[in-house]
Amino acid sequence: MKHMTEEELIAYREGVADQGALISKHLAACEECRTELERIEAVLAALDTLPVPDPGVDYGRRMWLDGGGTCGRSHAGSRRRA
Amino acid sequence: MNRMQPSVDSTQAIAESDAIAVERTLTGDRDAYRVLVERHSHNVFRLAYRMTGNRHDAEEVVQEAFLRGYQKLGQFAARSNFGTWVYRIAANYAIDRMRQRQKEEARRAAPRTEDRDGMENDPLNRVPDGAPTPERLTQSIELRKRMEQALAALSDAERTAFVMRHWEGCGIEEIAEVLKSSSNATKNTVFRAVQKLRRALQPFVETRAQARAMGTES
Fold this sequence. Notes:
The complex is a heterodimer. Chain A is mainly alpha-helical. Chain A has helices at 6-13, 20-29, 31-47, 59-66. Chain A has a domain at 6-60. Helix content of chain B is 70%, strand content 0%. Chain B has nine helices and no strands. In chain B, helix 4 crosses helix 5 (82-109). Chain B is elongated and about 65 Å long.
C-alpha cells in the first residue's frame, strides 16, 4: 500500500488537500497513516493551547479613543510609537 | 466629546449592517466608523496578536488597520465584507510590523555571539530569550516557550499562512491575496509552516504524551 506523504496529511488536516476524499478513504484503511496524522494533530493541538490575551470588553472603545477617534487623524505620524 | 448623541434607532440601524455603517461613514458620519471599530477590533486583535506574538505590536496593528481602513474606505467595494477587508489590511500591516521588529532585533542582537554547545544551530534559539533556564521551568511553561519560539522561527509568510489558515480559518484565496502569492504556493506555505512546527515541537509533545502514558507527568 502506498502511504500518504507528510504534505498530503498536513494539507488534509488543514483542510486544503486537493484529494481530501481519497485521503479519507486511505486513512480509514491504513493504521500507519492514521498514526502519522495523530502525531501531526498532537503538535497542532499543543499549539492550540497557546493563549491569546483578552483585550477586554471595552477594547474597541479604547482603540477608538486611543486613536483620537481613529479617523480623526489625517496622517499616520500621530499614532503611538514604541 | 461634542458630537451629537446618536438616537437609539440610528445606533441599532448601524449595528445591523456593516454596509450601512460604511455608507454612513462615507457620507461623513464618523460615529458610524466607531461602530465598525468596536465591532471588529476583537477579531483583528486576535489575528494581530497571533501574527506578531506580542500585545504591544498587536494593538498597534489594530489601530493602524482601522486608520488605513478609514483612509481607504472609498476604495472599499460595497459587495465586500468589511470585517474581511479590514482583517486583510491588518494582516498586511502585521507582516510589515513583523519585518520591522525582526530588523530591530537583529540590530540589537548583532554584537552578541552564541557559544552554547552548538545551540546556535537550533532554529528555536534564533529569538531572544530572557527567560529563566529550562531546568527551572515546569513542563507546561517550557512547552509554551518552545511553541512561541517555533512560531517566531517561521518566516513571515509561513507564520501568516499558519495563523490565517489554522487559527483563523481563512480560505486559501484570502491568504494568497495577503501574501501576494498563488493558491498553490500558499498551500505549500501552510505545509512548510506546519512541517517546521512539527520538526521543532514533536519530540517535546511526544515526550509529554509518553510521560502521561507512564503516569510520570505532574
